[in-house]
């Protein structure tokens, strides 16, 4: 990064501190004539590298538009339309800046005037979407807001250790934090808290909604379909974790008048003041929203039920109704324009700019999040804070998130089941035979090993501990040993052929220990990888490393990573990693947990014709190297013409090769498909990688 980009980066540090407060390894401070005086501390010493921000008479409070309507210190929730409007006004101000230096001056002027979460969201949005900042990468949200990942009790203990440490101590204070803190073993749902509360999972959800925002004037290719597919894949992976620990698959939350069985107590705080997120007791009932403190109009459960009925009517009638009263057909079998799943996704999520009729189909997904997050205090009688379901960086910690999104996915699946099954022409690839497939992990074949790993982040980048020493978070998380896929393919076409390799994984047995039918297993198939390869005529050995998966983001950049930047050699592994843009499923969650005794899984390998899959792309300044299955291409079209989740997104054809199709194994009668059994074994130990 150049110096201006470093100055931009430092504005994301210590979000709750004054803009003049020194930040980063180089102790950068922003000198504004309107800034508050710098607080004096005896534990921080050394020169400050001041960045002079000149007076900007062109910037007034009016320049901020609705960005001042969210109180400082409170929660910024992208599920609330008024908050999205505030973010849009601030983003538009940032996006109008002439260059990086101008953006830095505007952002430094704005920082102390708006809500902290709003500022960081809008600033990160700008870095992601401005073409002149495409060389920049975002630091992990874990370091920007450690209070959203670690309980305040642990952060307070760290502050006590800092206060007791000698003034000249250089060694960092370390906060060890395991996966078990939000509940006890009394509750069955606690068995999967290690997954729900994983830092990478929640960071992914925050980053995905940053890249695919609603009501922000962003219309990326197949955005509505990606909303469906990414969340559907989350559920498939969550269900695999549940089966790994002896729980049933998640049950949808669709009776909004019935109590929510499981409560949730996050132990987190919304800011550095110690104000806790709202909590939900067991058997809480979602109620009408009647609060006047969140900038949101009152709404009722009955209104949401009406929106649900209209969406379901549209699915089963085969069309939606636009603002002019005209029918908009819903079909995925189109040669131009939007697929039905894309239209439905835009209306359900719901993006008022893209929905065919936002007034009629409503704001169902977002307001369900809001209603649940305020179910403990829907009328502000107790002046309680919003629950974690109201924020994208924390929502996935709550068990009800998955029940809600099982309902959301069920609506999308009802649409998918109205579509005709794929034909043999869609599914087969004449002349290409998958002869063998398997995995290799170290010296083991067809056995994947999972366990625990640790990752360190600097909490002192997000919280000012008033000390020279770093305060590190050492977070324990589920992980797996790296592995390779090995696939033997015979190209019998007599010529070289470019193909797409599609790899999925699903558990072999259901909750009762029985083999599953196609329809029972259909929603458990998790995409593991998708890539293009050129087959020579004859036998081909395809080897693919797990770290190159098309769904994953290999690493979370820390502030320290970004300060150190790239080396001078563009071919180094470090620079290759910088080509990853930050959006994508966490690499350490690629493989499900499995069981200590080993759990049976099936690997599904399918080869399809790249000529039918390819999408013509225009020239792009930046095509991120990672996460394309979940995140697409930043400046281009989604790089696969087929529907997302193909071939499991629809019901199967009734027969394959003149025989009835009841199980996925029946689909593997086709030469271009192979089903292979593997085992996933959980060690419950720190992995040696």
From TrEMBL:
Residues 398-409 form the Tyrosinase copper-binding domain. It is found in: Secreted. It holds the Pfam family Hemocyanin_M. The keyword Disulfide bond applies. Keywords: Copper, Disulfide bond, Metal-binding, Secreted. SUPFAM superfamilies: Di-copper centre-containing domain (SSF48056), E set domains (SSF81296), Hemocyanin, N-terminal domain (SSF48050). The keyword Cytoplasm does not apply. It comes from the Eukaryota. Gene3D superfamilies: Di-copper center containing domain from catechol oxidase (1.10.1280.10), Hemocyanin, C-terminal domain (2.60.40.1520), Hemocyanin, N-terminal domain (1.20.1370.10). InterPro entries: Di-copper_centre_dom_sf (IPR008922), Hemocyanin/hexamerin (IPR013788), Hemocyanin/hexamerin_mid_dom (IPR000896), Hemocyanin_C (IPR005203), Hemocyanin_C_sf (IPR037020), Hemocyanin_N (IPR005204), Hemocyanin_N_sf (IPR036697), Ig_E-set (IPR014756). GO terms for cellular component: extracellular region. GO terms for molecular function: metal ion binding; oxidoreductase activity. This is Tyrosinase copper-binding domain-containing protein.
